[in-house]
């Protein structure tokens, strides 16, 4: 039976849409810092496809068997003490140990991750769960994207420009890879039981 236009309008979601402001990032590994997000992309998810063929030279696409997540890119405001920027910089240097082999050992000791599935505790200590929160105008959360086992893969520094007559606050952009993400919604600031 075809859906009638009146039925379709009755099923439409409430015409109250999410504004693209008021986004924040929290990182479990960095509990003292909340990043005020200026720009973020919720990563693209690709399911892929599998091709089935038959003897009659016909092919058919069916759903694939893996999900691929693109990277998370976040531009955030830099506080005047540059704490947020420095923490991600320290995280990256601790993971990669560019100056000495001791950097990784020291970083892994400082950032112990207690996990039941920890087969390589040093390696897992370089990752952290992180959450991107969308909030309404009253700063009550609307939605949360929780990124599991995330780690930074790039960080650009602030861009200084003294010729600009208006005050533009300094920002930095960081990109993260992660295993997967979960999505949940909030109602009047309380988390709903609807994690996907």
List keywords for this structure.
globular, 12 strands, alpha+beta, two-stranded antiparallel ribbon, 4 helices, 196 residues, single chain
Helix/strand class: alpha+beta
How large a portion of the residues is in β-strands, by DSSP E?
35-45%
SSE string, helix = H, strand = E?
Answer: HEEEEEEEHHHEEEEE
> Helical segment tally?
4
Largest sheet, spatial ordering of strands: 1-2-7-10-9-8
Q: Main sheet, how many strands, which sense, barrel?
A: 6 strands, antiparallel, barrel
Instruction: Summarize model confidence as the mean pLDDT.
Output: 83
Termini separation: 30 Å
Account of the 3D structure:
The chain is an alpha+beta fold. The chain is built from four helices and twelve strands; from the N terminus they run H-E-E-E-E-E-E-E-H-H-H-E-E-E-E-E. The protein has helices at residues 5-11, 83-96, 102-110, 121-124, and strands at residues 23-27, 30-40, 45-46, 49-53, 59-63, 68-69, 72-77, 128-135, 141-156, 171-177, 180-187, 190-191. The strands form three sheets. It has a six-stranded antiparallel barrel with strand order 1-2-7-10-9-8. Strand 4 and strand 5 (59-63) form a beta hairpin. Helix 2 packs across helix 3.
In short:
The chain is of the alpha+beta class and 196 residues long. It has four helices and twelve strands, in the order H-E-E-E-E-E-E-E-H-H-H-E-E-E-E-E.
Write the layout of secondary structure elements.
Blueprint lengths: L4 H7 L11 E5 L2 E11 L4 E2 L2 E5 L5 E5 L4 E2 L2 E6 L5 H14 L5 H9 L10 H4 L3 E8 L5 E16 L14 E7 L2 E8 L2 E2 L5
Antiparallel strand pairs: 1-2, 1-8, 2-7, 3-6, 4-5, 7-10, 8-9, 9-10, 9-11, 11-12
Helix pairs in contact: 2-3
């Amino acid at each position: 039976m075809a859906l009638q236009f009146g039925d379709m309008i009755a099923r439409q979601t409430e015409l109250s849409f999410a504004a693209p402001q008021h986004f924040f990032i929290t990182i479990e590994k960095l509990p003292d810092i909340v990043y005020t997000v200026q720009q973020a992309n919720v990563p693209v998810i690709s399911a892929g496809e599998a091709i089935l063929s038959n003897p009659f030279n016909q092919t058919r696409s069916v759903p694939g068997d893996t999900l691929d997540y693109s990277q998370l890119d976040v531009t955030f405001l830099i506080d005047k003490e540059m704490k947020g920027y420095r923490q991600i910089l320290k995280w990256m240097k601790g993971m990669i140990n560019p100056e000495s082999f001791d950097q990784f050992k020291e970083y892994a000791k400082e950032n112990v991750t207690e996990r039941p599935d920890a087969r390589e505790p040093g390696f897992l200590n370089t990752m952290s769960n992180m959450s991107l929160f969308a909030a309404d105008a009253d700063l009550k959360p609307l939605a949360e994207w929780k990124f599991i086992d995330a780690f930074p893969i790039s960080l650009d520094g602030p861009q200084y420009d003294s010729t600009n007559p208006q005050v533009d606050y300094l920002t930095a952009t960081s990109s993260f890879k992660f295993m997967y993400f979960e999505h949940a919604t909030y109602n009047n600031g309380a988390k709903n039981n609807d994690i996907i």
